[in-house]
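Ticket #412: bound-state structure for zinc ion.
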Amino acid sequence: MWQHTRVSTLITNIGELVTNAPDDGGSSATGGSSGETRPAGPGSYLAIADAALVIEGGRVAWTGPASQAPAADQVVDADGAAVLPGFVDSHAHLVFCGERGAEFEARMAGLPYSAGGIRSTVAATRSATDAELSGNLRKLAAEMLSQGITTFECKSGYGLTVVDEARSVALAAEVTPEVTYLGAHVVPPEFGQDSAGYVDLVCGPMLAACAPHARWVDVFCERGAFGADEARAVLAAGRAAGLQPRVHANQLGPGPGVQVAVEAGAASADHCTYLAAADIDALASSATVATLLPGVEFSTRQPYPDARRLLDAGVTVAIATDCNPGSCFTSSLPFCIALAVREMRMTTREAVWAATAGGARALRREDVGHLGVGARADLIMLSAPSHAYLAYRPGVPLTAEVWQAGQVVARS
Ligand SMILES: [Zn+2]
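RESOLUTION: The complex was predicted; output attached.
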């Protein structure tokens, strides 16, 4: 058995190998910066043309020009295809039942999006069996994997009772280590106007029941959801229970979300659609990633975040799906990349970096989001010669193979 895990695999004849590698600045590099303002060094987009990659023990053991590749036990010919790190989706809500197609239809007919729509999913989730919830979750997780998402975060937040939040995080923990406790998604209807009473529950018994299954704590800091002081209380309680903070911030209008996130040392402030100059300054001088979710603006017909302003200010930007049944029901990061390029004026390189290395930063993971030596061998082989095709051919399924820890896990 030990021999099996030591078999090495050489993937060669790679047209473009996107590594995002921290220390891989060889002369064969084709990327790095094409006028991008992101600081060079760790975190820069980096790609190697006519490349090869060796996998050993589920990790990347070597990358470089194909002409210099070492021998390996087995060889895979990429036939000129592009190879990218597996996508890292740092924001998804996959534990729910029901769907809201009619709400989407009405919204496209002119009705506005509001946080209240979440409540219909809460009702369907509460009345679902564990098997129904788990089945829907696993179906969506498989859908993500087949499209190249090899790491994803998954939030609770549609149970909103101690029992329903606890089973949500427990089920999520069966499919990903990146589980987020989002009891503070919205105040459930049985609490009426008593948001203080609900925050006590979120910070008390609900947190105690959820913390053993979660890594992260999140709060929807927004008008109609939770205010700044409530958000601070939720994050502080989560931190005291061993969870790390992240925040839904500034999605529907200007507000304190980004400042609360930065103050709390959150890994990520997510949405960032309505930012003041002070919000951008705060992000730029912090380790908090701005996670942009352009599928939401697409699906709610709202203005897109100003990605260029964030990038030009030196903020680390991630792109994620926000896959959820209300405001954005896509599990496709290629779709989000195409939106980021076309609608948010990100370069193709910036968008691909944001959906891989950026997502990893937003989850504080160093083993994924890049293909440097030592990284987990999570990768995507495209049926295209370059990463740019993800935006150049929008809507076309280009993910030919998905590898996880050095094994093919999906093929189309
Ligand atoms: Zn969300």
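RESOLUTION NOTES: The radius of gyration is 21 Å.
TICKET STATUS: resolved
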